[in-house]
Design a protein that fits this description.
The complex is a heterodimer. By secondary structure, chain A is α+β, with helices and mostly antiparallel strands. Chain A has helices spanning 15-18, 41-51, 55-67, 71-88, 92-105, 110-122, 126-139, 144-157; strands at residues 8-13, 21-25, 32-38, 160-167. Chain A is elongated, with a radius of gyration of 22 Å. The chains are: A alpha+beta, B alpha+beta.
Amino acid sequence: MNAVHYYSLIVLASAALLAEPALTQNADDNQVKTVLGPRNPSLVDGANALLAGDAEEGIRLTRLGLDVAVGQRERQAGLGNICAGYVLLDRYDEALEYCNQALAEYDRNWRALCNRALIYIKKGRFEEAARDLERGEEIAPNARALKEVRGMYLDATDPVNANITIDDRRKTENDDET
Amino acid sequence: MKPERLAGLVLLLLCSSLQAETTVLTRFIDHGSDRVPKHTVVPNYPHTARRDRVEGQVQVCYNIDRKGRPYRIAVRSSTHRIFEKPARRAVKASTYLPLKEGETRTGIKTCRTFRFELEPVVADNSDPAS
């Protein structure tokens, strides 16, 4: 029996992405100073928890960060990471909800498209997975995550067995060694 | 470096069950070398090639020393570079029977061709009751 195992693969907006230093005004000399530390620590901690594989804690922290998210970038990262967290927990309906929300707000978020395609594959909704993959590949044609999910899609819809043939029949090239 | 430059993606490959995705069926086709294989290592089908549905073949030529170990291993031809490394590694890890005392080497290189193919899995629709 050919047991097909899939990678459990998600794409997160990284902690580095979220760890943008905050800018603040110094009241005394009215100069702009860079304050060390992320602007939205909950989002960063959530991303780190997800990266460490602690999906529940990652979701909890990311939710906190999402509540105080500033701008589309942080919201997209938060929604996408919660989606990814639920994928990690195999809770695909909830994951879909957050990926849908991310894409409703910004439809060129290829990470969310990639994660949603993965969810659709897991749920056996292959036509929708194909659409998301095509769209994601248009936006980020070289993204490795999309290639991995495309491979999973192909494995689900057109499975193949790898076959290696070793052919020893040929014997050529004179040895110049003495 | 600007924080923006650090921004990027983290591709999280949480390997719930890493690899084991490849079923390798190996066929040995009649052996034409003057040396007899002792232990033949089958290369792995490269993950990215399988993922991207890439097939191809590599011919590797090499000498075999008295003890049966391949050396001077070189790729003679290949359709895709992705297959070259696993093919070379497989040859390097393979062995032949050593020469007996008094036997001499013919001085002919041995060549081995590896074909990497993907075959559709045919669904078994037969009625188990029949």
